[in-house]
Amino acid sequence: MTATDRFRPSVTVAAVIAREDHYLLVEEETPEGLRLNNPAGHLEQGESPIEAVVREALEETARAFQPEAFLGVYLARFVRPARLEDVTYVRLAFSGAVGEEIAGRSLDQGIRRTLWLSLAEIRACPDRHRSPLVLRCIEDHAAGRRLPLDSVNSDASLGCPRRLG
């Protein structure tokens, strides 16, 4: 197997945010049309998963996110009809709280709006979900799944990589 043949899943982070029996979701533009998603995005080189989820939640909701627990690692695979692209996502999901929307802060490009939906409302529209992981992460949160944040470890080499050899 060559380096170009190696399996390279897309690593993402997601924030599951609940308040008064409602969950904060984003409505975003995708190649398949408008979809609902947890505030989520790609892990960037040099950042820890916790740093990434705090950044993504802020960018997509204009709210400061405070992670409180790790929900788990989730995988999903699908073919994007618009591009015939076979994609596997590895999602690291965190639960936590947000403050109020920061006045004057715009939402990330492609995010149309944020909305608070009940679990019943989320369950009622699976065809609008960006992926099956949206509901799965919320269901796990609603069931009480919580792992300590220190379950996710990030070595200091993320900020200053070691030279091998």
TrEMBL record:
<keyword id="KW-0378">Hydrolase</keyword>
<keyword id="KW-0460">Magnesium</keyword>
<dbReference type="InterPro" id="IPR015797">
    <property type="entry name" value="NUDIX_hydrolase-like_dom_sf"/>
</dbReference>
<comment type="subunit">
    <text>Monomer.</text>
</comment>
<protein>
    <recommendedName>
        <fullName>Phosphatase NudJ</fullName>
        <ecNumber>3.6.1.-</ecNumber>
    </recommendedName>
</protein>
<feature type="domain" description="Nudix hydrolase">
    <location>
        <begin position="8"/>
        <end position="139"/>
    </location>
</feature>
<dbReference type="InterPro" id="IPR000086">
    <property type="entry name" value="NUDIX_hydrolase_dom"/>
</dbReference>
<dbReference type="Pfam" id="PF00293">
    <property type="entry name" value="NUDIX"/>
</dbReference>
<comment type="similarity">
    <text>Belongs to the Nudix hydrolase family. NudJ subfamily.</text>
</comment>
<dbReference type="InterPro" id="IPR033713">
    <property type="entry name" value="NudJ"/>
</dbReference>
